Amino acid sequence: MTRIAGRFARSEPRCRVGKFVRGLLADLPRKNCWTIAEWAGEPTPDGMQHLLERAKWDANAIRDDPREYVVEHLGTEQAVLVVDGTGDVKKGNATVGVQRQYTGTAGRIENSQVAVYLVHATARGHAAVDRELYLPRTWTEDPERCRAAGLDPDDVHFATKTQLAAVMLKRFWASGHSVGWVTGDEVYGGNPALLSMIAAHGSGYVMAVSCRTEVPTPAGKFRADTLMRKVPRRGWQRLSAGSGAKGPRLYDWAAADVNPSHATGASQLLIRRNRTTGELAYYRCFSPRPVPLSVLVRVAGTRWRIEETFQAGKGLAGLDEHQVRRYTPWLRWVTLAMLAHAFLAAVRAGEHHDRPASDGLIALTCNEIQRLFALPAASPGDPRDHRLRWSLWRRRHQARARNCHYRRHEATA
Questions:
Q1: Rounded to an integer, what distance in angstroms lies between the CA atom of residue 355 and that of residue 163?
Q2: Is 251:275 a contact under the CB 8 Å cutoff?
Q3: What is the Cα–Cα distance from 178 to 200, expressed in whole angstroms?
Q4: Which of 68, 97, 222, 392 satisfies CB 3.0 to 4.6 Å to 227 for a cystine?
Q5: Which domain does 407 fall in, by range?
């Protein structure tokens, strides 16, 4: 919390924001200003509501602090930036940005609010470093509606999700940081302007595309699924896209060289085939210098880290539990939730690096770290020893369950 203390001119919001972030990490059945204020020992929720709505502090300035914190603790070696959106299902039409639209959270079209996030992922961990709220045209073309939600109509302009991703990438690069790769799903892989911007910066990308995407080759343009059928049988390699709940995520992979998409560098079409179902996925790839297939596979597998970030941010730090309608409270809530999750990711990375788990225990997870900080003193003796005993029991039990699961999965395969 000392990293963001200088962002507050007064001591009251500075102290209260510390309580608020600890409340986001607390073991509460539902996280909002009422429950956090009660947990913090305040007589009413007015102070927490004032912190989000009217207190004088800049959420965009605090946004930069978690970014520096994440890069410092998770490192930059083989770092990948992952961009994707997530939706929160809402009721009514007064919440800023809400309309009937597709959200992956529900898997269908729902009345929801959608935001785009940028996640920094390395082998040490992953956490969100930026966010932008997606405002549909029904909002940007309605000044009165924007004004009611705390937005200045003169400053509001429609931007697609890919344009919001470009804004966040430029902001990350402008901060002086650089990573080798960017990845995202079909929404972002199908936008040539975004891909050209990434390549112009000197970064590579592995972006998912649909099977209908036309790819230029020396023999002419082909759809991605047509080009896949031209891959010889010996052109497939079995590689892992990273570790999953059931062990290594093994798929069959193939790469086909295509015409350069940009002035310099190597361009390829990467194809993934599920070994069990035969389901196919396609990726447009670019790298400033030629790289082996295993590197492209590693970057493609990193895209799933953003789903894990959303799951942890929502489940552990209340990222989606905001009950606010106006833009400023939303911006402040998600920024502080990102900071709370970044703390868990940084502690996890430090523990894995400095104190690796012994045999018979799983490595410390963000869930376990949150429990250690959030659990009340439940024993009449030393609460610290009580917490650690239960933590060790859980990690030992989970290690046994994981090993049995891996052996069963290998036998089935």
A1: 41
A2: yes
A3: 13
A4: 222
A5: 355-412
In the numeric block, which tokens belong to residue 322? 């905001």
CB atoms within 10 A of CB 129: 26
Looking at the structure, tell me whether residues 63 and 167 fall in a common domain: yes
Domain boundary among 270, 303, 325: 325
The domain boundary, picked from 305, 325, 345, lies at 325
Tens digits of per-residue pLDDT, 308-350? 999 999 999 999 998 899 999 999 999 999 999 999 999 999 9
- What tokens appear for 412 in the block? 């089935």
Q: Taking 70 as the threshold, does the pLDDT of residue 381 lie above it?
A: no
Give residues with Cβ within 8 angstroms of 378, minimum separation 6: 386
Residues 6 or more apart from 348 whose CB is under 8 A from it?
Answer: 125, 364, 365, 366, 369
CA gap 374, 22 in Å, rounded: 8
- Give tens-digit pLDDT for 20-78: 999 999 989 899 999 999 999 999 999 999 999 999 999 999 989 989 999 999 988 88
Mark whether 236 and 379 lie in a shared domain.
no
Average pLDDT in the 143-168 region? 95
Tell me, yes or no, whether 85 and 138 share the same domain: yes
Phi, psi of 187 (to 5 degrees): -55, -40
281 falls in which pLDDT band (50, 70, 90)?
Answer: very high
Residue 2 forms part of a structural domain: no
The Cα–Cα gap between 293 and 240 comes to 11
* Cβ(67)–Cβ(175) below 8 Å: yes
b/e per residue 203-222 (b: at least 16 CB within 10 A): bbbbbbbeeebebeeeeeeb
Q: 3-state DSSP call for residue 287?
A: strand
Q: What is the pTM of this model?
A: 0.92
Residue 201: helix, strand or coil by DSSP?
helix
Q: How many structural domains comprise the chain?
A: 2
Q: Say if 335 falls within a structural domain.
A: no
Q: Is residue 123 part of a domain?
A: yes
Could you give the CA distance from residue 169 to residue 396 in angstroms, rounded to a whole number?
Answer: 40
Closest alpha carbon to 47 in 72, 10, 84: 10
Main-chain phi, psi angles of 230, to 5 degrees:
-90, -5
CA distance 355 to 127: 21
Claim to verify: residue 369 and residue 317 sit in the same structural domain: no
